[in-house]
Design a protein that fits this description.
By secondary structure, the chain is an alpha/beta fold. The chain contains 16 helices and 13 strands. Helix 9 packs across helix 14 and helix 12 packs across helix 15. This is TIGR03087 family PEP-CTERM/XrtA system glycosyltransferase. GO terms for molecular function: glycosyltransferase activity.
Length: 401
C-alpha cells in the first residue's frame, strides 16, 4: 500500500471553519492507515506555521497572495473559471511534481475543485476528488440574483466551472459530495457515474454542554445566536435578512431579546448590523461553544446553503434548540429535532415559540444532541472512505482536467 498525497485549497488545521473541519477529519481518518503528504494553500498568516502541527508525512504550505483583481483578469484572458486562476500557482505545481517523484504515492486525494488543476496529466495514481459541494450550482444561484458586471461574472463562473467539474469527474476514480442531495444534483448536471455521498460529522465530545470550557455569564434577556464565517456571502445575506425581517418580530414579543452574530472577519455590511437594537457583532472568538451554550435559541436563516451546515450540527451537539431555513436544513438527517421555517413570520414564530416554552426548548435541544450522537460521528460518516480508497488502480492513465 502506497502513500497518499492530499491537496487542499486551505490548510486543514485547526478545524475551526466548515471546510477545515471536513478536511481535517478526512485527513485524520486517512492517516490512520497510510502515510499522507499534504500540499495546501494558506490565506491567513497564522496558517503558514501549521505544517509541523499536522504531524503527517511531508507537508508543504504555500501562501496564496494573489488578489481577486489579478485572478479576474487572468480568468478573462485565459477563458478559465476565476475559481481556478485564483488558486493557480507555479510553486504548488512544482511542489506536487516533486512529491510524486520522491514518494511511492498511489492515491491523490483532491479536496475542492480548485485543486484538481494540480493532478498531473496522465497521472498513474488513483484520483479521489472531494468536491464537497457543487460550486457551479452556488454561482448559478448567485448569478440569478445579482445584476450588472458582478452578476455576469457569476453566470460565467457557473457555466465554466460546471464544465470543469464535469471534466474532472470524468477523469476521477471517485467523486465525493457532502450529502445525498448534493450527490444527486451533481450526477444530474454532470452525468458522472462514480459519485459517492460522504457526509460531514461532528465531534460530540468537544461540542458537548458538559465539556470543559469557559461559560459566559447569563444576560438580562433571551439570546439568539448565529455562528459562521462572516465574510461569506450566504452568511452575510442570512444574518442581514434575520436582523431586518425576523428580529423585529421577535423583539415585539421579547423586547430584551438579543441577536449575537459570532464569527471571524465580519464584512462592513455585517458590522453595520450592530447599529440595530439588540444586535451584537462579536468578530472572531477563541471558542464558539460558550456562545452556543448561552444561547436561548440558535438560528441558521440561510437563503442559499449547499451541502451540510456544520454550524447546525455544532448547535445540535451542544443541545441547543435550533431554528433553520429550509435551505440550511437540506442534507441534515435531523429527524424533526430542529425547527424549520422559510418566511420571516415562520422563523420568528418558531424562535418566539421556543422562547415562550423553555421546557420544550430544552427537550428539543436534548433530542438534537442525541440525534447527532446517533447519526453524525466522524468514524461512521467516513467509514465509506475505506471502501472508496480501496478501489482498484485505474486501468489506464487519466488526463487531468
Amino acid at each position: 500500500m502506497g502513500d497518499i498525497l492530499f491537496l487542499a485549497h486551505r490548510v486543514p488545521f485547526p478545524p475551526d471553519r466548515g471546510d477545515k473541519i471536513r478536511a481535517f477529519n478526512v485527513l485524520k481518518h486517512l492517516s490512520t492507515n497510510q502515510r499522507v503528504h499534504v500540499v495546501a494553500f494558506a490565506d491567513d498568516l497564522a496558517d503558514l506555521k501549521r505544517a509541523n502541527e499536522l504531524k503527517l508525512g511531508e507537508t508543504r504550505i504555500v501562501w496564496r497572495g494573489k488578489s481577486q483583481a489579478v485572478a479576474g483578469v487572468q480568468a478573462l484572458l485565459t477563458g478559465k473559471p476565476l475559481s481556478l486562476t485564483a488558486f493557480d500557482s507555479k510553486e504548488v505545481r512544482e511542489t506536487v511534481a516533486g512529491l510524486l517523484a520522491r514518494y511511492p504515492i498511489d492515491t491523490i486525494y483532491v479536496f475542492s475543485s480548485q485543486m484538481a488543476q494540480y493532478v498531473p496529466e496522465n497521472a498513474a495514481q488513483k484520483v479521489v476528488m472531494d468536491f464537497v459541494d457543487m460550486d457551479s450550482a452556488k454561482f448559478k444561484s448567485y448569478g440569478a440574483t445579482t445584476g450588472g458586471v458582478t452578476g455576469w461574472m457569476m453566470r460565467r463562473e457557473a457555466k465554466l466551472l460546471g464544465q470543469y467539474e464535469t471534466a474532472v469527474a470524468a477523469r476521477a476514480d471517485a467523486s465525493l459530495l457532502v450529502s445525498d442531495e448534493e450527490a444527486a444534483l451533481f450526477r444530474e448536471r454532470t452525468g458522472a457515474e462514480r459519485v459517492h455521498a460522504v457526509g460531514n460529522g461532528i465531534d460530540t465530545a468537544s461540542f458537548d454542554p458538559a465539556a470543559p470550557f469557559e461559560h459566559m455569564p447569563a444576560g438580562d434577556g433571551p439570546s439568539v445566536v448565529f455562528t459562521g464565517q462572516m465574510d461569506y456571502r450566504p452568511n452575510i445575506e442570512g444574518v442581514t435578512w434575520f436582523v431586518e425581517a425576523v428580529l423585529p418580530l421577535v423583539r415585539a414579543r421579547y423586547p430584551q431579546a438579543t441577536f449575537a452574530i459570532v464569527g471571524r472577519k465580519p464584512s462592513a455590511a455585517v458590522q453595520a448590523l450592530a447599529a440595530h437594537p439588540g444586535v451584537v457583532v462579536t468578530g472572531e472568538v477563541a471558542d464558539v461553544r460558550p456562545w452556543l451554550a448561552a444561547a436561548s435559541v440558535v438560528v441558521a436563516p440561510l437563503k442559499l446553503a449547499r451541502g451540510v451546515q456544520n454550524k447546525v450540527l455544532e448547535a445540535m451537539a451542544m443541545a441547543r434548540p435550533v431554528v433553520v431555513s429550509r435551505a440550511a436544513a437540506t442534507g441534515i438527517d435531523h429527524g424533526g429535532t430542529i425547527a424549520v421555517g422559510e418566511t420571516a413570520d415562520e422563523v420568528a414564530e418558531a424562535v418566539a415559540g421556543l422562547l415562550a416554552d423553555p421546557m420544550r426548548a430544552t427537550a428539543l435541544g436534548q433530542a438534537a444532541r442525541q440525534r447527532v450522537i446517533d447519526h453524525y460521528g466522524w468514524d461512521a460518516k467516513l467509514a465509506v472512505l475505506d471502501r472508496i480508497m480501496g478501489l482498484g488502480a485505474p486501468s489506464a492513465p487519466r488526463r487531468a482536467a
